[in-house]
Design a protein that fits this description.
Elements (H helix, E strand, L loop, with lengths): L1 E3 L3 H12 L5 E4 L4 H9 L3 E4 L5 H6 L7 E4 L4 H14 L4 E5 L3 H8 L5 E4 L1 H14 L5 E5 L2 E6 L4 E11 L5 E3 L7 E8 L1 H12 L4 H16 L2 H24 L4 H13 L13 H38 L10 E4 L3 H12 L4 E5 L4 H10 L3 E3 L5 H6 L7 E4 L4 H14 L4 E5 L3 H11 L3 E3 L1 H13 L3 E8 L2 E9 L11 H4 L4 E7 L6 E2 L12 E6 L1 H10 L4
Parallel strand pairs: 1-2, 1-4, 2-3, 4-5, 5-6, 12-13, 12-15, 13-14, 15-16, 16-17
Antiparallel strand pairs: 7-8, 8-11, 9-10, 9-11, 18-19, 19-22, 20-21, 20-22
Membrane topology: Multi-pass membrane protein
InterPro entries: K_chnl_dom (IPR013099), NAD(P)-bd_dom_sf (IPR036291), RCK_C (IPR006037), RCK_N (IPR003148), Trk_Ktr_HKT_K-transport (IPR050721)
Subcellular location: Cell membrane
């Protein structure tokens, strides 16, 4: 197998393939010495060069490879490399990492055997669940049925207990009993189903979205100053109309007409105060002066609000004074995915990015997320984003040190703030969890790598469920002919690292929670929850090789 990449996902994926006893060759672009060092420490052969270069791929043995994973950042480069590889080896299985999944669906159709995955889309739900901290968990479709992974209170029927705390405080995965389990897989309760339905029906069509945008735009034009100016103008017109009606013995319409011409200093001069008593003339002077002042204030308010609204549409909404919101530090591919899902859940979000690009600013406008430009680890930047009043701070930049410093700074601003960190280094993450008191630490590559590895083996991972620093994987595993599982008893497969909760034969409806004495045959599909090592074991046993 050939794996091309330039970041930590490449390293994690090679570790997963090693657990599967797969021989792999890594292709790393020039200028990534740290990645090359980590890959070399794994004992994997490294080819330096661009994956879009046919010569580089040939040096990696692409013409003899079974699968190619393109996991570098940059959709265009990955698509280019996939096209080059398909010309060199038409039978190659392709696994392509892409951020733009709409484009990925179209790219998938260009190849005979291609799977498009997004590392950020795989990892984002775990960050969102940790940030919201509402215990609702997440829905997982499997075999035409929807399951829920979350706290026991979120399910009506426990299918698989996923995690519980041991006496020493460590997390035990896939316990035999649901007693004391804090994370379970089961049938979602009615409240969860209502939440899913509400989320599914909350997407407005293009026309309604346009109307909502115009209503919001008009609302931005009518702030308190503009309303005060309009009220003042109305008061002047009403009082002057009544004054001229009785003082000059005019009809109401004539009095209103004369008042408007006086206030706006326009008209035809057909009504004037030349023959009026002195006190009426003095009142007319006051009305003219008040009219000029109020109209000037009204014009200034309209122009100011119009310019401000256009700036909001160009630069995104202002931060203002948010409260009980979520601050997302680092608006890269992961940060954007997290913002999208948080906004879909109805949460208020403020983003922080060191140097936001025009494309990022456009994405922030689309999501209605105010953006603060600055260093996420700086206290003043976090304060500008309202971190002191936030319900959670999510630090998902590409730098472990920046994320850690941002989390510690956020805690200094508000000790009760929940902090969710993205950390690659597992040892650092464990020590942060134990010693520094920061709430949750996640790794994008740790959650995504097993999904990419399974795709390279031709298998599908349905979801990655975080349990502390570890991850459980829900997968559909077909049983291959003459594999180790062909003819085996289900009870021999179900173990401390693998739990089987569904079995489908042919096109029939799956049997959920099948009995342990069931005999497995080729062509059946197992629905399993497994640890990373457990999934690797069952993939090999199912004949994925």
């Amino acid at each position: 197998m050939v794996v091309c990449g330039d970041d930590t996902l490449l390293v994690r994926l090679l570790e997963e393939l090693a657990m599967l006893d797969e021989r792999a060759i890594a292709v790393v672009p020039d200028g990534n010495p740290e990645v090359v060092r980590l890959v070399t420490e794994l004992g994997v052969e490294v080819v330096i060069g661009s994956p879009t270069d046919a010569g580089t791929l040939l040096s990696a043995g692409i013409e003899r490879a079974r699968a190619l994973a393109l996991v570098g950042e940059g959709d265009e480069k990955n698509v280019h490399a996939a096209l080059v590889a398909a010309e060199l080896n038409p039978k190659l299985r392709l696994v392509v990492r892409m951020f733009n999944l709409r484009l990925g669906q179209r790219i998938d159709d260009l190849f005979d055997d291609c799977t498009v995955l997004s590392a950020s889309a795989i990892a984002a739900p775990s960050f969102v669940e940790a940030a919201l901290g509402d215990g609702h968990g997440r829905s997982i479709p499997a075999g035409g049925r929807t399951f829920a992974a979350g706290a026991p209170s979120t399910v009506d029927d426990v299918v698989v207990p996923l995690a519980r705390y041991r006496d020493d405080g460590e997390i035990s995965l896939l316990p035999k009993s649901a007693n004391d389990a804090f994370l379970v897989l089961g049938t979602p309760s009615e409240s969860i189903l209502r939440t899913v339905v509400a989320a599914a029906t909350s997407h407005r069509g293009p026309v309604r979205r346009r109307l909502r945008e115009w209503a919001r735009f008009l609302g931005q034009l009518t702030d308190q100053r503009l309303r005060l100016a309009l009220a003042s103008l109305t008061l002047v017109v009403v009082l002057a109309t009544a004054l001229f009606k009785f003082a000059l013995r005019l009809e109401w319409v004539q009095a209103l007409y004369f008042t408007v011409t006086t206030v706006t200093t326009t008209g035809y001069g057909d009504i004037n105060l030349a023959a009026a008593p002195p006190w009426v003339q003095l009142a007319g002077v006051v009305v003219m002066i008040m009219g000029v002042l109020v109209v000037a204030l009204l014009t200034a308010a309209v122009v100011d609000n119009l310019v401000g609204a256009r700036l909001v549409r160009a630069l995104g909404p202002p931060v203002g004074k948010p409260h009980d919101h979520i601050v997302v530090c680092g608006m890269g591919t992961v940060g954007l995915r997290v913002c999208e899902q948080l906004r879909a859940a109805g949460a208020e979000v403020v983003g922080i990015e060191q140097d936001p690009s025009p494309a990022l600013m456009a994405a922030a406008r689309r999501l209605e997320v105010p953006l603060v430009a600055g260093d996420a680890s700086d206290a003043s930047t976090l304060a500008s984003a309202g971190a002191g009043k936030a319900r959670c701070v999510v630090a998902v930049t590409d730098d472990d040190v920046v994320n850690l410093e941002a989390g510690l700074t956020a805690r200094a601003l508000q000790p009760d703030t929940r902090v969710v960190l993205r950390l690659f280094d597992p040892d650092l993450a464990d020590r942060v969890d134990r010693r520094l008191g920061l709430s949750v630490s996640r790794s994008v590559s740790y959650a995504a790598a097993p999904v990419f590895a399974a795709a390279m083996m031709g298998r599908q991972v349905l979801a990655a469920i975080p349990a502390g620093r570890r991850v459980l994987l829900v997968a559909a595993v077909p049983i291959g002919a003459r594999s180790s599982l062909d003819g085996a008893s289900l009870s021999t497969v179900d173990s401390g690292r693998v739990r089987i909760f569904g079995l489908r034969t042919g096109n029939a409806e799956p049997v959920w929670q099948p009995p342990g004495e069931s005999r497995l045959v080729a062509g059946q599909v197992l629905f399993v929850v497994a640890t990373r090592a457990g999934l690797a074991k069952i993939l090999v046993a199912s004949g994925a090789h």
